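subagent[fold] <- orchestrator: predict structure for attached chain, return tokens only, no commentary.
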Amino acid sequence: MTQVQILMYHRVGHFPGRVKAHGALYCHLPRFRAQMKMFRVLGYSVISLDDAAAGLRGEIALPPRPLVLTFDDAYVDFLANAAPVLKAHGYPATVYAVSGLIGTTSSWDAGVGPEPAPLMNAAQLREVQDMGFTIGSHSKSHLRLAQQEDACIAAETRDSKTALEDLLGRRVDHFCYPYGSHDLRAVQAAAAAGYVTGTTCVRAAATPAEDLLALPRKAVSRGDDVFGVAWKLLTKNVAKEPQVRR
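subagent[fold] -> orchestrator:
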């Protein structure tokens, strides 16, 4: 069966003393470099989310061991730390930006999580796009969509797409549900807004059986070395929780 592995990253850099409770938000730069080398050694083909979607629809042939790299929230350290490593390997990636918080901080973390971190501004997002990376939407306000009213869900998906397309001068086809929070209403709203894919936090490999607007991903955490990431790629390829489908 065709399988596409989709990895979820957040911040990449040096994080001394970070608490383990929020480990999924961090990847140490030396480990990130090692992971990028490991993908090629193990025969993974890093492809764009556009190609993954086309492959899952059966429109193109996928390469051996297809792998997609995604980065949530569009932190400034993506441009400073992750982008040069990705470019050195020739790897594509998708970065999800919160349209209403561009150039500010991850304020949703204030008081409930780690210290808010800087998010890329408009010029930095354009620079990332010019480097060949894909910018997707991570909603307008970074809310848990499954907990919102219908009108709010529609606005968070639709308005973020419009704002990012105006900023970037290019179509925005990919959506990421904040916190992985999604239900049938959120998936339908993403479809109505015109997105091609939507990514979740369900841990599994993506297959042609998946709704493209509810794709599973595997998180890379602070404690994951190359062996840990390799193990995640090789295991947990079938979702234990039911997927939301239209």
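orchestrator: received. Logging for downstream: Residues 5-134+202-234 form a domain with the TIM Barrel fold (CATH 3.20.20.370). The chain has a mean pLDDT of 94.
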